Amino acid sequence: MPSGVLLLHPVRLRLVQAFLGDRTLTVAELHAELPDVPQATLYRQVGVLADAGVLVVVGERKVRGAAERSYRLDLAAASVGPEDAAAMTADEHRRAFAVFVAGLLADFDRYVARAAADGARPDPAADRVGYRQAAVWVTDEEFDELAADLREVLSVRTGNRPGGGRRRRLVTTVHLPAG
Predict the structure, then answer these.
(1) Is 59 helix (H, G, I), strand (E, B) or coil?
(2) Residue 176 lies in a domain
(3) In this structure, what CATH number is given to the domain that contains residue 17?
(4) Does residue 49 have a pLDDT over 70?
(5) How far apart are the C-alpha atoms of 106 and 108, rounded to whole Å?
(6) Which long-range contacts does 39-45 make (Cβ < 8 Å, 24+ apart)?
(7) Model confidence over 107-138: pLDDT tens digits?
(8) Is 45 within 8 Å of 9 (Cβ atoms)?
(9) Residue pair 135/145 in contact by the 8 Å Cβ criterion
(10) Which residues, including other chains, have CB under 8 Å from residue 39's CB and lie 6 or more apart?
(11) Domain presence at residue 167
């Protein structure tokens, strides 16, 4: 199944997002991060992603007689390549984008809910939360250069390891022709 279609499922998309940042996680750790998803659903969807090669088993240990596996994301397998995107129908693209946006909204809602659970109001400035949109007038070649520049800037940071006061952050980009 092409990864674009595979990730049309909202739980599978959230699972992939949980692994971003070169993380290794068990299903129990995923359940701690996604407590609203039933554990049986997590096991089932992790299995689907593992069978598709999107998640790779990188460790296994015995816990109370059962095998507990650690998984890591194969980013290349999770990416929607040009061939996959070209094979998707207009409706599949709409659904994929809707799932993507719904996941983004859910991430933002969890951010706001964490502050409310602590009896506080969200503080986007202090938390370095931002959302904005800009329009640029560029040729296709200039846009390709812009996209390459963005990839370069992000690639410097995606190699960072946890620790030293670092917080895991999601950086999301969407490129659309306007008008």
Answers:
(1) strand
(2) no
(3) 1.10.10.10
(4) yes
(5) 5
(6) 41/11, 42/11, 42/15, 45/9, 45/11, 45/12, 45/15
(7) 888 888 888 888 888 999 999 999 888 999 99
(8) yes
(9) no
(10) 27, 31
(11) no
- Euclidean distance between CA atoms 147 and 173, whole angstroms: 10
Beta-bridged to residue 55, according to DSSP, are 73
The pair of structure tokens assigned to 16 is 């992939």
Residue 178 to residue 135: CA distance in whole angstroms: 8
In-domain check, residue 82? yes
Query: How far, in Å, CA of 111 to CA of 43, rounded?
Result: 25
- The count of structural domains within the chain is 1
Gap between the Cα atoms of 169 and 22, Å rounded: 12
The tokens describing 84, both together, are 């996959």
Distance of CA 164 to the CA centre of its chain: 23
Average pLDDT over residues 155-170: 88
What does the longest C-alpha to C-alpha distance in the chain come to? Answer: 60
DSSP state of 67: E
Residue 170 to residue 107: CA distance in whole angstroms: 9
Look up the domain containing 78 and give its range. Answer: 3-129
Cβ atoms of residues 25 and 9 within 8 Å: no
Backbone angles phi, psi at 64, to 5 degrees: 50, 40
Residue type, 46: V
User: Looking at the domain assignment, is residue 173 inside a domain?
Assistant: no
Helix, strand counts (H, E) of the chain: 9, 3
Do 109 and 92 touch, CB atoms closer than 8 A?
no
| Lookup result for tokens 């296994």 | 60
